[in-house]
Amino acid sequence: MGFNCGIVGLPNVGKSTLFNALTSTVQAEAANYPFCTIEPNSGRVAVPDYRLNKLTELSKSEKTVPTFLEIVDIAGLVRGASKGEGLGNQFLGHIRQVDAVITLLRCFESDDITHVEGSVDPIRDAETVETELLLSDLESLEKRIEPLERKVKGGDKDDKALYDVMSRVLDALREGTPARRLPISREERPYFKELSLITAKPVLYVCNVGEDEAATGNAHSARVLEKAAAERAEAVVISAAIEAEIALLETAGDKMEFLETLGLEDTGLSKVIAAGYKVLGLVTFLTTGPKESRAWTVPQGATAPQAAGVIHSDFEKGFICAETIGFDEFMANGGEQAAREAGKMRQEGRDYVIQDGDVLLFRFNV
User: Fold this and answer.
1) Which of 22, 180, 225, 324 is deepest in the core (most CB within 10 A)?
2) Strand order in the sheet with 358-364
3) For the segment 234-254, what is each residue's pLDDT rounded down to a tens digit?
4) What is the distance between the alpha carbons of residues 126 and 103, in angstroms, rounded to a whole number?
């Protein structure tokens, strides 16, 4: 099961620099001019998880396999992108394909790096991006609603339900409200999903500050954090320049030492990944043994059979039970057998909802 986040923003805000650092590649060319990213680049990012390393040590696993998040670098949007300005609809189409949107905002001053709007104002930039995505959704639905209206006259209940949801979304978009802020009932969700709206995707604001402001942020990033709080969205402060330097260091020890000199506890990667998991509504469960310790990703609310199916479809089809131990109890008891003997292992059935950090062993019959 794959999940991906697309990095969007105006030109020259540091998207390609951040992408390179996050994926530790040089796939994306960072340059001081708009539209240097012609096609979206994507890379898989290993999700940092200290629990996985602990399990590997305890189980003496031959392999450690993290879970991954795909990051997609999408070229810079400008005003009028929804009308084809810049490289316009090509990029809007790419954004439509991701699960969540990372809106990277320039929160640093520099005489050496031009700003497409002539000044640094992350709130204005966030609104520019939001407006272009909203206009793209609006144009898409306006093209679809008239043919659907004619079909509704035929009396099909599904067509009528889809039309009602589409009409309500259109009204909101015309008022400048992104689709993700609309209350959608359980019954309406399938129809809402069918609309494939960019503004329905969860958003993570990432404030790109100067190297000397990575630990404290600045006035620009403070405004973005306030905006995110008001929207009940997520926001993190990072320095893409620092992340680029960290990516060049070879060992974890070197990276930690470098972070300490800057007064930082975590890399920007860790912050972005943690926040990305939160906006996507994901949890991690773990499996461990002598051959490998591995992290797996499922949506919040996933049941035990669904989690089993992520490992192999046969596990879900023949699901019997999930032998479950919480990570803390697994470690405190020194492993599976001791935790089992201490009564810390539970047998959970089909209705069990996976919790973040569950250490699982699936029993199945095919």
Assistant:
1) 22
2) 63-65, 292-299, 282-287, 358-364, 319-326, 346-348
3) 999 999 989 888 888 878 788
4) 7
**156: pLDDT strictly greater than 90:** no
Nearest to 238 by CA among 205, 278, 261, 260: 205
Q: Which amino acid is at 290?
A: P
Q: pTM of the entire structure?
A: 0.82
Q: With beta carbons less than 8 A apart as the criterion, state whether 82 and 73 touch.
A: no
**H or E segment to which residue 305 belongs:** helix 304-311
Handedness of CA 82, 85, 89, 91 (dihedral sign): negative
Pairing of strands 4-8, 100-106: parallel
- Is residue 272 a contact partner of residue 22, using CB atoms and an 8 Å limit? yes
Mean pLDDT of the chain: 86
Q: What whole-number distance in Å separates Cα of residue 36 and Cα of residue 31? A: 6
Question: Which residue do the tokens 């966030």 mark?
Answer: 126
- What would the DSSP string read from start to end of 110-127? -SSS--TTSS--HHHHHH
Q: Cβ(217)–Cβ(105) under 8 Å?
A: no
